[in-house]
Amino acid sequence: MDHPPQPATILELRGIGKQYRSKGRARQGGGQTVVALNNVTLDFRAGEIFGLVGESGSGKTTCGRLIVGLEKADQGELLLEGRSYGTLKGESLREYRRQVQIIFQDPYQSLNPQLSILDSVAEPLVTNRVGDNKERLEKVLTTLKAVGLSPPEDYAFRFPHQLSGGQRQRVAIARAMILGPKVLVADEPTSMLDASYSAQIFDILLEVRQRLATTIILITHSLAAARYLCDRIAVIYRGNLMETGPADAVISDPRHPYTQALIDATPKFGDCGPIKRYGTLVSPERPASGSAGCAFFRRCGLAHLGRCARQAPELTPLTLGHLVACHYASQTPVPETGQACRLGGM
Amino acid sequence: MSAEPQTASQVTPRRRSPWRERFREDWLVFSRNPLGRAGLVLLSVFGVMALLSFLPPLIDPMYHPMTGVDPQVLYSEGPSVRHWLGTDFMGRDILSQLLAGTRVAFMVGVSAAFMSIVLGVSIGMVAGYAGGVLDTLLMRLAEIIMVLPTLLVVLMLSALFGKLNIWTIVLLIALFRWPGVSRVIRAQTLSLKSRPFIDAARVAGASHARIVFRHIMPNVLPLAFLYMTFRVTAAIVIEAALAFLGFGDPSTVSWGMMLQWVWKTGHMFQAPYWLFPPGLCISLITLSFYLLGRAMDEVLDPRLREENGTV
Fold first, then answer.
1. Do B8 and A151 lie within an 8 Å CB cutoff?
2. Which residues contact B134 (CB under 8 A, 6 or more apart)?
3. Confidence category of residue B285, pLDDT binned at 50, 70, 90
4. If you average pLDDT over residues A240-265, what whole number do you get?
5. What local confidence, expressed as pLDDT, does residue B188 receive?
6. CB contact under 8 A, B203 and A98
7. Do A110 and B203 touch (CB under 8 A)?
8. Average pLDDT over residues B71-85
9. Domains of chain B
């Protein structure tokens, strides 16, 4: 077997952990620790689109916010091109953010209503003291054009409330791209938009990747979107990595019961033959296993009551680059129908 | 850049300033509000009065509000052709005093309100954005000042330091009137702080100062302007009360000062032509700023607009 040369790792998460403590006194339900991320180790390669998939509250957004330094990790470290950015502050944080940018979920909330599009998009240039006013205007206009807002002069002097959701999201992409970052986190960039806009936003992301070789980390709950866009994906559940590998492998041959349950839950459409179901979810949920066991224990239909409750599985390679955190990864069900079904609901 | 400017301008009016557009929309809402119109009309009357206050001394030195004494008049006289609103106890023209008082009222009201807004907005934004110990300290300070009776404290200060200059009074009013503003602005800042566009500004590399002044301030300014109109009212009333009680600036003719002269010289129930103009003016200017504020409130809060309202 010969593989194409592995692209260099650009960003690395090493054993990242993050806990939130609820406020208030213990009697009022405060003081409880909620684990948002638990020992997450991931590497992102230069120029790839990496999907971070999980259900609501799985910690994928926290992960994205950590990557751009909006949250601080409680454990572990963050390496950008081999340099550790453990304690980001002041100038080094600004330096880091020139390289790592984010697009937020809700374009109706992520643009300042009192700033014009020009001012919003030029903000990274101003804070990083790039160019003079004329150069900045020029740069903003070309960037707006690149994200499909043309003629850019028409948009630059408008205010967010005069644009549609899709147009606002393009503005947000332009703001994130204007410094030419190496890594772009896209936090559910289309969840607030309807389907036709979603496809356009995805196309813009693909084009950005092609033109600037930017690494894109796509955070999404939609396996269909992940499959459409991503080279590799990671499935995350309650802050724990469950499965990671090439997008096609993970989706057409999922080995973790949770990934299989996610695929079961994805709406399917079209003529795709007999629908395969993994049926790995157990209902009603079991009582919790305690902190030592597998994170998915409560809902897993395959869990061994002894082993899975006591011992958390490690991420272990199954095939090359396909890692699964399950004791029984090799025994999870395989659907009989050979052809994988088309995933709908994108 | 613009290959076909014609088509572009047909689709959307190009570079039409959104500020102007927004102002136009807001003006439409404002002008449909009867309260706002009444307030504006009243206020423009006072504005004209303040402008005219420079005129009487130019016509004849005897019309000077402070030093101009009509040699033909020995005691307070009612309205006449020579003195439209009559004269005070030593023959000074009441109309010219009233006009000068309008100017002083605007000066005191607007500058005190402006200063308290500047203080209140900056302290409120800093407290809301910084949070923690700084927030607690600033807000406790605000509460301490809020429960002090302004008038009483200013009276005591003026008793301590002798007669107060009009600008000192303005400063004192501002120092005692910022806490209310800062509490409102702090609350607004707290809700703005957690909005994603502030996160976006942080990721864009904006410093804390830049976030506060560039990203949060434009969003709280409309509210600050609204509060300013209410603060103007408060400042004018406090100044009038101080002056009436005899703690005003004796070198300035304000409406409160005129009332004090009426009272001190025992003309309270003998000279209605002297008593009523300043009293009415204080009430009406207060009313006009209040009406203006109410109408602005409606512009800023669309929920207050009537169903068939515009925009």
1. yes
2. B126, B127
3. very high
4. 88
5. 93
6. no
7. no
8. 83
9. 94-304 (1.10.3720.10)
